[in-house]
Design brief:
By secondary structure, the chain is mostly helical. The chain has 16 helices and two strands.
């Protein structure tokens, strides 16, 4: 993988369906245009602090497995299992979620074409046979591409990521030149303190920027010095923050006040604004951008999840079958097929249940970030690198700050009831699984 391939992997993983759907359903309602911009920038800077520890660890452990390996080598096997278990769920859940986002694109751009064969309704979301087939087809296609090898997947990822950035820039530039910018007022939602809005966006940063940490998962497949990985991660995070802010700004220019645009729950605010402002051509560009975001997200998390499962299987914390490579392509075929099979169940349950899962991915990501930065601090202390040690401590504090916003009642980002239930189920399953492998895995070590 070339540097541009790794950058495309990270950016494509960060920017998924949420960049286009959440401005109208979460970002603007919580914080408004200015509050969203402030929250995204603050969150990005905190994530950059965490990314610096990632770059340090990649140079010391240039092997697949990322956070799992870092935690194992510095803190111990038990904690490594917790870290790896959280990351598997966080990565995997974003594959079917991105796949089901294709239904949203089709509902708005090609109404009635894919929405054929109404099956049932779950949590207010109509499940159609046509949409299930569409999402399932893309899950299978992306699995085949990844089985065939990292080179093919990387070329695809790079092209899609660059197309994604280009489309968003075109939409933003034309919209800002033609729209009434006074529609961006007020900067914050009425009836809510501005700082609560800002920090509700900051609380979403682990979810919003999850994906930069895909880079360590394929560290064995770089064709360049691992020293470049830090700069690649930071640039991907900052570009992603600007893209989030750009789409939110585009959405908010639709009406004055912008709150009226968000009142229609059955509307897709971003698509509505682009269609009214730029016409069919703009909507097509937006559709291409969202399609690229969905496909790049699926591809990136296929790569990352399969490499993580491979590393954990090699270490004995997952069944050995996931550590076997394809004789023909040299890829973790069994892990990819398992991810595909697990993902194929998701389209049958509608998007609402998946959103509950993704709502708590920020918790898993924050925990993993805390483990990783703590690992960097411990390793730097062993190597007598005080600067890196304090940087790791700062990153760990940022991670714990993210976690506090999500799990402490009354905080701006406190999880919904459904998300808390899903989180407890995930913890219980992990505990049961750990009990089954602890004797062979831990072998009396911490």
């Amino acid at each position: 993988m070339r540097p541009i391939d790794v950058w495309g992997l990270a950016l494509g993983a960060i920017i998924g369906w949420g960049c286009f759907v959440l401005p109208g359903s979460a970002f603007l309602p919580k914080a408004g245009p200015l509050g969203t911009a402030m929250g995204m920038l603050i969150g990005a800077l905190l994530i950059v602090i965490i990314a610096l520890s990632y770059g340090y660890l990649i140079r010391n452990f240039p092997i697949s497995g990322g956070e799992f390996i870092y935690t194992k080598e510095t803190i111990g096997k038990r904690n490594a299992f917790v870290c790896g278990w959280g990351m598997i769920l966080a990565y995997w859940s974003l594959i079917p979620l991105n796949a089901t986002a294709l239904a949203l694109i089709s509902r708005y751009m090609f109404p009635g074409i894919v929405q054929q064969g109404l099956l049932y309704q779950i949590a207010g979301w109509d499940v159609y046979a046509g949409e299930v087939i569409l999402a399932s087809a893309f899950i299978v296609i992306m699995a085949i591409i990844n089985i065939r090898g990292i080179k093919e997947a990387a070329w695809l990822q790079t092209g899609i990521a660059l197309t994604l950035v280009g489309c968003i820039l075109v939409i933003t530039f034309i919209t800002m030149c033609t729209a009434d910018l006074s529609n961006l007022e007020p900067g914050f939602p009425d009836g809510r303190r501005w700082w609560k809005g800002v920090f509700s966006i900051v609380a979403m940063a682990p979810w919003a920027f999850i994906g930069f940490d895909c880079i360590p998962q394929s560290a064995e497949e770089y064709n360049f010095s691992h020293k470049k990985s830090t700069g690649i991660m930071i640039s991907a995070i900052l570009v992603a923050a600007l893209l989030y802010i750009a789409i939110c700004a585009v959405t908010a220019t639709g009406l004055k006040p912008w709150q009226e645009l968000l009142a229609d729950r059955n509307n897709w605010p971003t698509g509505h604004v682009v269609r009214n402002t730029l016409g069919l051509a703009g909507l097509i560009i937006l559709g291409i951008a969202m399609f690229c975001a969905v496909i790049s997200g699926m591809n990136a998390f296929y790569i990352s999840t399969s490499r993580l499962m491979y590393a954990m299987a090699v270490e004995g914390s997952l069944p050995k079958i996931f550590g076997q490579l394809s004789p023909k392509y040299g890829t973790p075929k069994n892990a990819i097929l398992f991810i595909m099979a697990a993902s194929l169940f998701a389209p049958w349950f509608g998007r609402e249940i998946l959103i509950w899962i993704v709502d708590m991915t920020s918790v898993g990501a924050a925990i993993v970030f805390a483990y990783t930065t703590a690992s960097a601090a411990i390793l730097a202390n062993r190597q007598n690198d005080k600067g890196r040690m304090w940087l790791g401590i700062a990153g760990c504090l940022c991670s714990l700050f993210f976690l506090s916003l999500l799990i402490i009642p009354g905080m701006p980002g406190y999880l919904s009831f459904q998300s808390r239930v899903v989180l407890l189920i995930w913890i219980f399953i992990g505990f049961v699984f750990y009990l089954n492998i602890r004797k062979s895995y831990v072998k009396g070590q911490n």
